[in-house]
Structure to design on (873 residues):
């Protein structure tokens, strides 16, 4: 069974395990939806009070918010194995068993525990997307949809890259570190607002360091057919999500280094 | 309070501190995360203030202090019901048949307060160092955590802080008891954290929400967890308004403690009747 | 050509030193000191296909480290390892497809999944041909009597049941080599017997090469002809267990219940190990004093109710061996 088919198998297995507890899964999903919804409440309250920011209306900002949350929720759904790698695999020695299977370790971790409850964030983001479409309004023609899908793909790659880095750290520190949440959850927090509102130094971090701008800001500009207030060329806007994939590739390089270290120091 | 009563808490605190030092990477990482969190929220506020500062109900420097205070005292927020407390209460319910329910509630209440304070203290100290001392030193004084605005504010903050802790413990106790009674930890936690984060003022100072919501927001019980004490700190609530705020905190604390005791007594009665 | 070849295997770790107490912990924040731990030093041995080898040694001796290196999880500091023509840690994916590993008390099966579903998933992971998988699975289920357990989630099984399922899981892909790391630990007596019986059949009837690490000397007694003892990272002995016993503790024990009070025997070369009012436990070297002669001597001079002869327990032999080689727990 090839890698992709096995990945599908892992996902189905995980979902079936959760289907054994339907009420609990439903409640967790609802809870996650409620917990993540408070962020849009915050965005709304601020826009309601201050009027606008960075030249954006609430509806437009909501589009930024919705897309970032969609891409993060999907990445979150698929990367639990990396998120808990330190505590559930390295600390317990369970990673040894992963290594004893004739498959790439990353594949096994990606297929570990696909938590349906994370769709709670996706649900509220979709609702926000619906409202944003009506508020602005946004025309979802083929081009806009294509850019959105491409951006979400790049965003999923970016956030998965962050999770892979988080797992890689565990090779050195054993426990999963909170600090990587700064990049993943902190990244969502920062990117749910249009990035041009931030000071220059922060924007540069979010473009070249952690390329959130490339998956969450430039493509959205292209969808809204607005030129970048900061002067990035128009042709760049739809192409930017590729940075997410580049980031993921780099993360895997670090991951390989981490695996090599594990092989020489054990658990 | 005798030294004997305090000793377990001191010991727990010391053990906690040692544990924290042991996992130095994790400890520093957790703190760095909070710093970052505070920074992002401040950057967002700064962006909005830059556009239309007049629309804001509180000045930017005060909002900055609000954010840092919130991060420092995060451990005092009743976000998650602790299933272990619920379990222990349930299993200990039968054993307490000789004691009045007050003792069980009182015991767990004090433990909760101690636990919250023990977790809050190290982070608060680090946050003071970073946000109140280091930031001004590197020239970012505008973004620093300011000391209380004046002697009155500082003095009023003391009871506000105490009440804030007591209120938080009362909320958490109630949540734990509901969890213990219904065995539904997930349901309670799903609802508790978002409710607390929004209505305490953790997410946004309550005055930032639409004006129409103000009357309700200012009197609901959770306001005393963050919004009221912090606004007393930087003198946004002064004089009679401050005293009203303290009264609100105290009043809700009493109500929630009473509710908690009542719920616990009923639950334990029910356990006794079932045979525990 | 040996199936498993280990030559001059060495593994050294660097471990951070931590001073105790609050000040030590604070100092540890600023500067760390390292010391070297030699988990393995100059270990060499080889295994032919179909052999069964028991690996014993005190805690921390390096048994698990050896198994981890042989399975490809750990990279040695120096030395040469070859399993079935592959270097384990360099060819991980190809190598692990050919071996099975069972860790005592730990299950690789998915906690919430029924046993059979776990087996099916493993078949996909190991890319086993469906026809071969079905045959092998049915064979193992029959051998290990797993039929009634197949539909139950693993979390509902007892430890003994879980370990039986674990053995099946490790063999579904038909590996030629099986590594067992403390497989009987924590099991009740019937389960231990079942496991030993299964391993013996696997090795004798199906020719699976087995390398077993254990603390339980009865595992050794039941299964292994060849034994390697590891102490503090060094290989202390490699050979049949009987030679080990003979070289360390060539002793017989004589337990005598006397009709009257236990006498002072005063026989040279015979040590009195224990004495109660009416019985004695004696130790002697059968090479120097033949057993029948000693029994005849004693019964001729004293009234005896009962006698029985045995050898020192394996644990005693091993403990004495560790002592002799100063191999105690690191």
């Amino acid at each position: 069974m090839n890698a992709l088919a096995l990945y599908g198998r892992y996902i189905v297995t995980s979902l079936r395990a959760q289907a054994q507890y339907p009420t609990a899964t439903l409640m967790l999903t609802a809870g996650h939806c409620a917990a993540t919804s408070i962020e849009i409440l915050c965005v709304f309250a601020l826009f309601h009070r201050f009027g606008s920011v960075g030249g954006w209306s609430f509806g437009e900002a909501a589009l930024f918010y919705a897309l970032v949350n969609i891409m993060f929720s999907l990445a979150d759904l698929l990367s639990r194995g990396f998120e808990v790698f330190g505590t559930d695999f390295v600390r317990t020695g369970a990673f040894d068993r992963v290594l004893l299977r004739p498959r790439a370790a990353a594949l096994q971790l990606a297929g570990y525990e696909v938590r349906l409850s994370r769709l709670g964030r996706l649900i509220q983001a979709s609702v926000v997307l619906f409202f944003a479409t009506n508020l602005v309004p946004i025309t979802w023609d083929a081009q806009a949809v294509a850019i959105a899908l491409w951006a979400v793909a790049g965003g999923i790659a970016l956030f998965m890259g962050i999770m892979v880095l988080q797992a890689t750290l565990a090779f050195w520190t054993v426990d999963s570190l909170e600090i990587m949440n700064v990049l993943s959850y902190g990244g969502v927090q920062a990117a749910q607002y249009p990035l041009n509102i931030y000071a220059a130094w922060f924007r540069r971090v979010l473009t070249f360091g952690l390329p959130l701008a490339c998956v969450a800001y430039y493509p959205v500009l292209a969808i809204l057919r607005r030129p970048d207030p900061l002067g990035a060329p128009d042709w760049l806007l739809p192409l930017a999500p590729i940075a997410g994939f580049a980031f993921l590739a780099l993360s895997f390089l670090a991951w390989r280094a981490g695996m090599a270290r594990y092989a020489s120091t054990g658990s | 309070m005798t030294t004997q009563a305090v000793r377990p808490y001191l010991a727990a605190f010391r053990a906690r501190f040692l544990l924290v030092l042991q996992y130095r990477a994790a400890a520093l990482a957790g703190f760095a995360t909070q710093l970052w969190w505070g920074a992002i929220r401040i950057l967002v506020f700064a962006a909005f203030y830059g556009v239309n500062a007049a629309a804001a109900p509180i000045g930017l420097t005060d909002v900055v202090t609000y954010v840092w205070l919130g991060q420092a005292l995060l451990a005092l927020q009743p976000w998650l019901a602790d299933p272990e407390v619920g379990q222990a209460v349930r299993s200990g319910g039968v054993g307490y048949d000789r004691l009045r329910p007050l003792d069980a509630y009182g015991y767990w209440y004090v433990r909760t307060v101690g636990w919250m304070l023990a977790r809050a203290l190290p982070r608060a100290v680090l946050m003071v160092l970073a946000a109140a001392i280091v930031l001004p030193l590197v020239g970012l004084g505008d973004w620093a955590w300011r000391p209380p605005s004046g002697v009155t504010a500082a003095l009023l903050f003391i009871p506000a802080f105490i009440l804030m802790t007591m209120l938080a413990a009362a909320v958490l106790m109630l949540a734990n008891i509901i969890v213990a009674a219904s065995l539904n930890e997930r349901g309670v936690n799903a609802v508790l954290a978002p409710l607390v984060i929004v209505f305490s003022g953790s997410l946004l100072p309550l005055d930032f929400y639409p004006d129409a919501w103000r009357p309700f927001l200012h009197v609901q019980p959770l306001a005393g967890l963050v919004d009221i004490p912090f606004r007393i700190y930087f003198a946004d609530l002064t004089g009679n308004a401050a005293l009203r705020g303290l009264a609100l905190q105290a009043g809700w604390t009493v109500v929630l403690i009473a509710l908690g005791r009542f719920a616990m007594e009923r639950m334990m009665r029910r356990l006794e009747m079932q045979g525990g | 050509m040996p199936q498993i070849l280990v030559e001059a295997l060495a593994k050294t770790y660097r471990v951070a030193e931590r001073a105790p107490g609050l000040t030590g912990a604070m100092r540890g924040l600023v500067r760390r000191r390292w010391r070297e731990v030699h988990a393995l030093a100059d270990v060499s041995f080889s295994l032919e296909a179909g052999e069964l080898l028991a690996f014993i040694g005190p805690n921390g001796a390096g048994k698990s480290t050896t198994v981890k290196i042989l399975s490809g999880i750990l990279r040695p500091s120096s030395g040469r390892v070859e399993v079935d023509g592959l270097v384990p840690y360099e060819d991980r994916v190809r190598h692990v497809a050919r071996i099975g590993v069972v860790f005592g008390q730990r299950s690789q099966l998915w906690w919430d999944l029924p046993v059979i579903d776990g087996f099916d998933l493993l078949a996909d992971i190991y890319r086993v041909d469906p026809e071969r998988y079905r045959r092998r699975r049915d064979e193992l289920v029959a051998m290990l009597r797993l039929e009634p357990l197949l539909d139950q989630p693993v979390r509902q099984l007892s430890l003994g049941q879980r370990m039986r399922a674990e053995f099946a899981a490790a063999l579904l892909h038909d590996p030629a080599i099986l590594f067992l790391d403390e497989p009987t630990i924590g099991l009740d007596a019937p389960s231990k017997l079942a496991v030993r019986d299964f391993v013996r059949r696997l090795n004798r009837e199906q020719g699976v090469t087995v390398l077993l690490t254990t603390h339980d000397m009865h595992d050794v007694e039941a299964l292994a002809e060849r034994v390697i003892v590891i102490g503090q990272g060094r290989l202390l002995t490699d050979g049949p267990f009987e030679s080990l016993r003979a070289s360390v503790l060539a002793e017989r024990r004589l337990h005598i219940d006397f009709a009257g009070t236990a006498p002072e025997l005063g026989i040279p070369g015979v040590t009195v190990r224990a004495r109660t009012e009416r019985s004695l436990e004696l130790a002697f070297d059968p090479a120097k004093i033949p057993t029948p002669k000693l029994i005849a001597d004693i019964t001729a001079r004293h009234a005896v109710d009962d006698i029985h002869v045995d050898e020192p327990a394996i644990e005693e032999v091993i403990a004495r061996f560790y002592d002799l080689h100063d191999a105690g727990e690191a």
